[in-house]
Amino acid sequence: MILSGMEDEDKWLAEGIAGIQHNAFYMHRALDANNLRDALKCSALMLSELRTSKLSPHKYYDLYMRAFDELRKLEMFFKDESRHGVSIVDLYELVQHAGNILPRLYLLCTVGSVYIKSKEAPAKDVLKDLVEMCRAVQNPIRGLFLRSYLAQVSRDKSPSLGSEYEGGEDTVMDTVEFVLQNFTEMNKLWVRMQHQGPVRIREKLEKERNELRDLAGKNLHVLSQIEGVNLELYRDTVLPRVLEQIVNCEDERAQYYLMDCIIQVFPDEYHLQTLETLLGAFPQLQPTVDIKTVLSRLMERLSNYAASSPDVLPEFLQVEAFAKLSSAIGKVIEAQVDMPIVGAVTLYVSLLTFTLHVHPEHLDYVDQILGACYKLLFGKPKLEEGRATKQIVALLSSPLEKYNDIVTALTLSNYPCVMDCLDDKTNKVMAMVIIQSIMKNSTCISTADKVEVLFELLKGLIKDLDGTAVDELDEEDFNEEQNSVARLIHMLYNDDSEEMLKIICTVRKHIMAGGPTRLPFTVPPLTFSALRLVRKLQAHDGNVVGEEKEPATPKKIFQLLNETIEALSSVPSPELALRLYLQCAESANDCDLEPVAYDFFTKAFILYEEEVADSKAQVTAIHLIIGALQRMNVFGVENRDTLSHKATGYSAKLLKKTDQCRAVYTCSHLFWVDEKDGIKGGERALLCLKRALRIANAAQQIANAINGTSGPVTLFVEILNKYLYFLEKGNPQITSAAIQGLVELITDEMKSDSAPDPASDAFFASTIRYIQFQKQKGGVMGEKFGPIKM
């Protein structure tokens, strides 16, 4: 059916074009013969083709342009009086005898153009006559194109400032009056289109109306281009008349388009100086008009105008632009009770963007906008609609992007209130935006009060909201969020130790409420932040005043950490808790707090014994314990012996023999520390190595029983390297005979191995080369390695 209608239109258009071409041919013949009578007759017949009502605006435009081209030729003929021999005044009367109204008015406009150019009558009188007579055509499409033709032929003949037609009684005001009158009539015709035809084709009519909107809007562009339309004339005449027509037409499409035209075609300076008048029209528009888009474009233009030059900024303060825009937005929202939330929020986003461009120093303006937005959202269900939440995120992100400083945003009292209006998912998105802003700008949050406000903003990431279970969240997203929080904790710092302690306590209060799944992410950065404070206190050897105004020593900070890590160990996340206990023990060692360090090691051993069940995790944990204990120098003999024997005992109880062996020979370093004041228990170190040899031998026997081969000698080579290390360091219990015996043992094992291991062979060969190198080196080392026979 639609296809059939399009084919019919194409046929009608072809017929119309053929009619124009046919009559134009005879018109040209008459023009060549200087036959005025036949020229008028043929041109009237040609223009009669424009009387059709069968074409859509798009097709009618094609037909109109054909006629328009022919009328330009006719106009040239009318200008040359010597060819037709009739005065322009008589010609103006003569064309009015055409039979049909539409051809008559096209010819009248054409002759009128020549009449004005001849200056035989005031331009304003001719224009007034033409614009009045065009009222005779009331068909919307035909009337719009006729008036468009009138505007076209009179465009360069209006008495504007500097025009050759200015002077005498002709003034700029006459031109303005003509354009305004033509605009008013064209808008009425355009609006009337919606009432043409049955309801069932309403959608088609609206589409056709949309195609013709430029014809109506073109008049506003003409008005903006008239020389002599200054600010005073625009403020007192042009804008009030245009707004009156827009408001009175009561048509949604016309009001939206024409208000947008005003904003786009007239200068920004005029908008600023007539802001009150322009904004006063918005509440009077139809409730269904998309005011948010028009207002947003207005504020965008004003923002760009403000950015164009610093010299114009005082004008904004002078006219109180912010107050007027803010008031207008409030009135629009109040008048349009059915305006969706997203529309209202979009207006506030535009106002905030305007404010940040024009008045960035006025934080009170920013907070006022956020307060108005919160007032709008207060008492309503939390926003979940996608477009609305995106606008809220844009609203809250704007201050961060402008000031590049979250600290500035933290001073805005209404900022957290607006965030509370978001649903949980969007709240997290906004929290991530805040953290990313802090990271991007390397912002340091330096007071406990600001940290408190910040963590209230980030509560969607720090704890579960409204009972949302963590297991409902995507694991990858959750990990990314918590890693961001962990990075944020490192950005909280103050050189003042007292304030730093307050910050740590504030952070701890919030993260401890985060639930077991968040603690493994947030406790480590808090721990290291506290240990940094401990090192600072130790360096100054002083105390700070805590939250309760009591002396806060490293010992009390360790007590705080003890409680914090203990919560982590009950998550359970024992491996992480064990690592943190060992870090705290090392810091306690630096502070010379033996009881505290011993307590941390005790808790680490308890965790190892009771919570670490995986065999691989046990191997890692015992090596961490041995490494940390080896670096300790605060312990007395009794405490060190207790912990060292405990570590050695756990090493010998690992599941795999290879793991036992390596852990036990590593324990030898607990009894011989190569430092100036380090422990030098050579005999006990040797006992660890001998015990490791027995375990390695047992591992060989097990391999032989299972595989029928003794297996690789890697463990023996590793133990040999430990012997060499202690020999170099001067352990008197390590003899060259013992080393030589171990070398021979390894050699025999390698010979008896039916499936040699290339890696073990290379390892052993490298060790032998090292012994030979040391023997040849001479000096003290040469003496130590000399007795070893290869």
TrEMBL record:
<dbReference type="GO" id="GO:0010008">
    <property type="term" value="C:endosome membrane"/>
</dbReference>
<keyword id="KW-0813">Transport</keyword>
<protein>
    <recommendedName>
        <fullName>Vacuolar protein sorting-associated protein 35</fullName>
    </recommendedName>
</protein>
<comment type="function">
    <text>Plays a role in vesicular protein sorting.</text>
</comment>
<keyword id="KW-0963">Cytoplasm</keyword>
<keyword id="KW-0967">Endosome</keyword>
<dbReference type="InterPro" id="IPR016024">
    <property type="entry name" value="ARM-type_fold"/>
</dbReference>
<keyword id="KW-0333">Golgi apparatus</keyword>
<dbReference type="InterPro" id="IPR005378">
    <property type="entry name" value="Vps35"/>
</dbReference>
<keyword id="KW-0472">Membrane</keyword>
<dbReference type="Pfam" id="PF03635">
    <property type="entry name" value="Vps35"/>
</dbReference>
<comment type="similarity">
    <text>Belongs to the VPS35 family.</text>
</comment>
<dbReference type="GO" id="GO:0042147">
    <property type="term" value="P:retrograde transport, endosome to Golgi"/>
</dbReference>
<dbReference type="GO" id="GO:0005770">
    <property type="term" value="C:late endosome"/>
</dbReference>
<dbReference type="GO" id="GO:0005829">
    <property type="term" value="C:cytosol"/>
</dbReference>
<dbReference type="GO" id="GO:0030906">
    <property type="term" value="C:retromer, cargo-selective complex"/>
</dbReference>
<dbReference type="GO" id="GO:0006886">
    <property type="term" value="P:intracellular protein transport"/>
</dbReference>
<dbReference type="InterPro" id="IPR042491">
    <property type="entry name" value="Vps35_C"/>
</dbReference>
<dbReference type="GO" id="GO:0005794">
    <property type="term" value="C:Golgi apparatus"/>
</dbReference>
<keyword id="KW-0653">Protein transport</keyword>
